Amino acid sequence: MSDAKISITFEQDHDRLDALLTSFQQQKRIDFAKAAAAFVEFKSGLQRHIVWEEDVLFPKWEENSGMAEGGPTQVMRTEHRIIGECLEAIHQKVQANNPDSDQEEQRLIDVLKTHNMKEERILYPSIDQVISDQERTELYQAMKEIPEERYRTCCGSERS
Questions:
Q1: Closest among 72, 19, 84 to 48, alpha carbons compared
Q2: What is the bridge-based pairing of β-strands 153-154 and 157-158?
Q3: How far apart are the first and last CA of the chain?
Q4: Does domain 6-145 have CATH number 2.40.30?
Q5: What average pLDDT does this structure show over 87-100?
């Protein structure tokens, strides 16, 4: 991670995750093994992204802005639970080598589309406004220190 603004780093991660999901969707009926690998990377990457937000970004924003109870981060956390349910539904299909996950994927895409837009247009720019350069450096360091086992398991295997 660089010293880029939070909004830039997290928007780039959204784009990377979107590309992995698209790869899964394009490959699942052509080369399921390749699709499954893309899904594993997508799922663990999205889980990491959520852990970064919930463990590091949101608490700092709440501290600096004074908005915790009932604020935008509470809405984001609720949506993260829905995203997790969607991921798990697709995960179950991947584990069963079942490419028929279109409904589950569409639900996830629908949730992510509005969720990411709120983060990119409102929350991330707000975080950039309420943190100092030093705090941003500390946030990136804290994100690097999160143990991989918090987010790196999928489909019965751990990835290094």
A1: 84
A2: antiparallel
A3: 18
A4: no
A5: 95
